[in-house]
Amino acid sequence: MPELPEVETIARGLDSRVAGDVIESVWLGSKPEPLKSPAREIVATLESKRIAGVRRVGKHIVFDLENGGRASTKKARVGHRTARARTPAPTLTRAQWIVHLGMTGRVLVCPPDEEIAKHTHAIARLRSGRELRFVDPRRFGRLSVASGFQAPGSEPLKVDLASFLGLFRGRKTPIKSALLNQRLLSGVGNIYADESLFRARVRPRRRASSLTRDELGRLYRTVQEVLKEAIALGGSSISDYVDSDGEEGFFQLQHRVYGREGEPCLACRTPVKRVVIAGRSAHYCPKCQR
Q1: Of 3, 24, 47, 131, which residue is the catalytic one?
Q2: Per annotation, catalytic residue among 17, 59, 142, 203
Q3: Which long-range contacts (CB under 8 A, 24 or more apart) does 246-254 make?
């Protein structure tokens, strides 16, 4: 699943390419799983809206929308049915289109004559002539509309040290599980939790409450360090991830423990171990991490 650096990379790429453009019509596929909001509400909210900007909130891509000028008289196709673009569904003040990529979701900017890929679940046709396409083979991604959308937890790149310490103080869960708890930090996933814990020299099974202030301080710094480095390299392309241009990231070349089970630690040559914590894999060096 794309994590914070991948979603940030995609959002920045989309913002640079489609901000200021207008969504003229929307096609939605017939599969119900990707739609978290009703199809007619999505169509009514997006049609004839100007994309004010695209940004990341947690692991979500948020398109901020505003009135885009003249209304379109076109019809929007919803699956195998046709829904009028002007429907009774209420439009939202400060409307936002929210995209969660799930495991295999992609948001691509395409020319209209490009072949439509299998598993395309949404197409937003833009006034510039281009199309925004949401493609998701496994259908774990979600499309919705909202107003004032917020992530459930703190933003890892903006949280201050005191607040970070407070998130984990007294928690008896393993620190790896706590880092993955989106109600605490929104956006950190398996890859970047493992890499941050390695750099902080903390074992993933340690109870969060057992970490000293100094250890939590190191973890605070390494979480931000790892995320910023990954964003600079366009994220980690492990399986399906590509950015809005269809390009892969390069941070996987910098992984020190994630996915390296049995390989020598890059710091001490001890074989990297893999354990399962609450159903999620965790990679660590038994010598470097305490």
Answers
A1: 3
A2: 59
A3: 246/108, 249/5, 249/6, 249/9, 251/5, 254/229, 254/230
Number of neighbours of residue 155 by Cβ within 10 angstroms: 15
The verdict on whether 203 is a catalytic residue reads no
179-201 confidence digits (pLDDT tens): 999 999 999 999 999 999 999 99
Q: Which of 12, 74, 84, 280 is catalytic?
A: 280
Q: What is the DSSP string of 199-246?
A: HHT--TTSBGGG--HHHHHHHHHHHHHHHHHHHHTT---SSS---TTS
pLDDT digits (tens, 9 = 90+) for 107-123: 999 999 999 999 999 99
Give me the residue spans of the domains in the chain. Answer: 4-147, 161-284
The CATH fold assigned to 161-284 is: Helicase, Ruva Protein; domain 3 (1.10.8)
What whole-number distance in Å separates Cα of residue 137 and Cα of residue 120?
8
Concerning whether 2 is annotated as a catalytic residue, the answer is: yes
CB 30 within 8 A of CB 216: no
Can 59 be counted among the known catalytic residues?
A: yes
Annotated catalytic residue 114 = no
Q: Which of 2, 156, 174, 204 is catalytic?
A: 2
Q: Which CATH architecture has domain 4-147?
A: Alpha-Beta Barrel (3.20)
Orientation of helix 213-232 relative to helix 161-168, angle to 10°:
110
In angstroms, rounded to a whole number, what is the distance separating the alpha carbons of residues 96 and 61? 10
Q: What is the pTM of this model?
A: 0.86
